[in-house]
Write a structure and sequence with these properties.
Length: 112
């Protein structure tokens, strides 16, 4: 299993969607951290545990760009993501549901 903690590996204060909107953007997290770890997990046929706890908060634009962008921009399949990524949050499980909605929405839009 591979583990990626947004707070420990990226930032305790994640920002907005794009780098031009400020530091620690969802795009930066996806490109530099999430995408490579997902590719590694898929190649090793193992789980990628993403820990959402420990930040000052996770904005909707950060989460949509980070996770929805895996499908919209990077071309990962919804099924590969869902069987590989394990979302962990003991602080606020609403984040998990929100991310699943963004993934499903990106999947549905990519199939139209």
């Amino acid at each position: 299993m591979i583990t990626l903690s947004i707070a420990k590996d990226f930032s305790r204060i994640p920002g907005a969607r794009f780098p031009e909107e400020g530091d620690y953007s969802g795009q930066e997290f996806r490109v530099k951290y999430l995408k490579p770890k997902l590719q590694e997990a898929l190649s090793l046929n193992t789980k990628l545990r993403v820990i959402l706890d420990g930040t000052a908060g996770l904005g909707t634009s950060f989460l949509e760009e980070s996770f929805g962008g895996l499908i919209r921009i990077d071309g990962f399949s919804y099924n590969d993501i869902m069987r590989t990524i394990e979302l962990i949050s003991e602080e606020d499980d609403e984040y998990i549901e929100e991310i699943k909605e963004y993934l499903l929405d990106a999947h549905e839009k990519s199939n139209n």
